[in-house]
């Protein structure tokens, strides 16, 4: 039998399942790029102001490490889209990878692929169809983005390079997900491994870009995100660089197909360690089981957040020396919304940490649906465990887990910045407080997933869509000149800007109350629906 037989059928099935999700994500990316370009064209009508803004950004290692370097300070396109170059490539890479995992490892884990394999289905059909769907999605996304940028008034050549740059990043990480889907036995682990590779790639790019003397710029070339950035749209396009992610994809596809031949359907290359024949006494409650299921992910995220906090605190202690011009200081102060330049940077970074912690909350809450579809919830609920107990165990892990992550990041940044600034006793509690105020917004986003799980479980992945919308509103709402009522829809917009800013207890209480109400609504609706 042909190893690829049935690929077309699986492609049609995947497109049918994602007929709403894929167009929404494409639309979000296209609107974001076009809106950013249009807003910048209206803002930088004066060439001197454009160059000054670019130099201000390049003069700040903090901004360069976050968003990348502007290679042509006189280019309107390069300045307009500098926030979306590396960061946008990261998000497109995440989309490409998640689509591959969704249509390979998730299908195996749920048992659907085994049923399909009982018919006429080749060994590589699932992987091939997932790569086709993911690749087609990011390519269409890139081309439509290029057209929207041309329509916004930017150069055609640079716009095409920008769109292809995004598509290339998506293809590279689709290849990464193709490999992680063979290594792991669960979709969550495969997505986690892909996210780790994405994070490492972004950090490598940041290290290379923020090199003051150019001695470590070569590090960027170790990262697929760095390759995308080196295409340099609107700054003397380097078309040949696009061959690197394509070669990387081909290499990873070869590796993934080789791994498929070495494992059984439904199994991963790395098999989970068998447990003891009898359960320990510590596993006699739903919460204990939930902790067992989530602890590995929480340990990995916690270590990453500790390192992130230490890194942020170390950079913050030197921000005053990095940013020398008045315009640069004004930019960073506006980003953080506080008076002091160091506090402004820390407030901005704590907001970013809050966004990242929300991703863990969504992932942990989505475990409810994966347990249900994998038919592991129903046998448990057939015992003395009630629906409320089972749901509460996973919701608590999501809420408490995000709390641990955000506080670990605050502790790390407080220790790092306090040791450098010589005021450890003052800085640690300030940073823990700055981290803690992020929790109500994080919990609200997690509660939205709980509501979707209880009310419309098939739409529970819409939590990622809402998260993406909130992220884009927060990052680009002012650039797009969105009305204030729309910006206010994002819970992150109501979080106090600490350290250094004014603290108001009202928004914290309101966000917490809304999160609690949504969680209760999720419990109520879950009790009234059928399992499965």
TrEMBL record:
The residues that cross the membrane are 20-41, 81-101, 121-147, 159-178, 190-208, 239-260, 298-316, 344-366, 395-415, 435-457, 464-487, 507-526
User: Which keywords belong to this entry?
Assistant: Membrane, Transmembrane, Transmembrane helix
Name this protein carries in UniProt: ABC-2 type transport system permease protein
User: What organism is this sequence from?
Assistant: Kribbella pratensis
